[in-house]
């Protein structure tokens, strides 16, 4: 994607219109959450699945990260705790290979090991820091809006070396989750910008691109995995590098 822009005092004129601020999703937008989850999952589950080949581990990871997200939806609805949904997703992935994770100590040990190991694998994507550098030079404020609680995501960003993302809105900030318009607009308020002049960038088509656009922001779908969406008529990029020319 080619983007033309002009800058003046932290204000960008571009194909998106006037841009005075940028908000990001966090998981699988700023940080590679899928990698951190699948790597930790394999490490804590290899003793239960000895001899599983690479294709099997890929299937195991996909069940946990993509095919059991209804448990995360139940967490967002207040029906499960965060760790309960983690355990249920782990049980589903193990169950696919005929392994039953027993209640009690076995489940506790598996979950505890996963909780301890997963954060160490959370890293920013290679295209994140270059864009943040450009935003800093241009004087454009930025922040993040996430469908997880503030303190957990704050620790995640800090652990990934993204403490410079100081403005953060979590699901507990206002008691709502994406795609409720209020959560995006709280991010806008923290930046001190206007919704119509704030880019919102995220990997989830519904929750990020379409949800933020419906709230009045300039939604951008970060489609890292080249998904197809025939009905989507908004703006999509495959990497954050495509946005760098906007702010240089």
How would you describe the overall organization of this protein?
A hairpin with a 2-residue loop joins strand 2 (12-14) and strand 3. The protein has a 6-stranded parallel sheet with strand order 6-5-4-7-8-9, sandwiched between helices. A 3-stranded antiparallel sheet has the order 1-2-3. Helix 1 (33-45) packs across helix 2. By secondary structure, the protein is of the alpha/beta class. It starts with a strand and ends with a helix. It has helices at residues 33-45, 54-66, 69-76, 82-96, 105-117, 128-138, 150-159, 171-174, 181-191, 205-214, 244-247, and strands at residues 5-7, 12-14, 17-19, 21-24, 142-145, 167-169, 198-202, 218-222, 235-237. The chain is elongated, with a radius of gyration of 19 Å.
Poorly predicted regions: 1-9
Following the backbone from N to C, one meets helices and strands in this order, namely EEEEHHHHHHEHEHHEHEEH
Widest sheet, order of strands: 6-5-4-7-8-9
Please report the number of helical segments: 11
């Amino acid at each position: 994607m080619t983007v033309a822009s002009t800058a003046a005092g932290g204000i960008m004129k571009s194909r998106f219109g006037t841009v005075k601020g940028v908000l990001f999703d966090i998981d699988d937008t700023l940080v590679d959450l899928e990698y951190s989850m699948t790597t930790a999952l394999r490490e804590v589950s290899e003793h239960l699945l000895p001899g599983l080949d690479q294709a099997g581990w890929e299937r195991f990871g996909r069940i946990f990260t993509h095919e059991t997200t209804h448990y995360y939806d139940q967490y967002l609805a207040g029906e499960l705790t965060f760790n309960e949904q983690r355990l249920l997703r782990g049980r589903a992935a193990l169950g696919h290979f005929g392994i039953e994770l027993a209640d009690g100590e076995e489940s506790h040990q598996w979950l505890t090991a996963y909780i301890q190991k997963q954060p160490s694998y959370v890293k920013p994507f290679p295209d994140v820091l270059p864009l943040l550098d450009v935003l800093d030079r241009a004087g454009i404020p930025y922040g993040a809006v996430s469908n997880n609680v503030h303190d957990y995501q704050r620790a995640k960003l800090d652990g990934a070396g993204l403490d410079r993302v100081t403005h953060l809105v979590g699901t507990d900030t206002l008691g709502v989750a994406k795609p409720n318009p209020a959560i995006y607009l709280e991010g806008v308020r923290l930046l001190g910008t206007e919704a119509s002049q704030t880019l919102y960038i995220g990997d989830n088509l519904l929750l990020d691109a379409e949800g933020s656009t419906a709230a009045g922001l300039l939604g951008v779908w970060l489609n890292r995995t080249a998904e197809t969406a025939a009905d989507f008529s908004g703006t999509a990029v495959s990497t954050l590098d495509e946005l760098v020319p906007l702010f240089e």
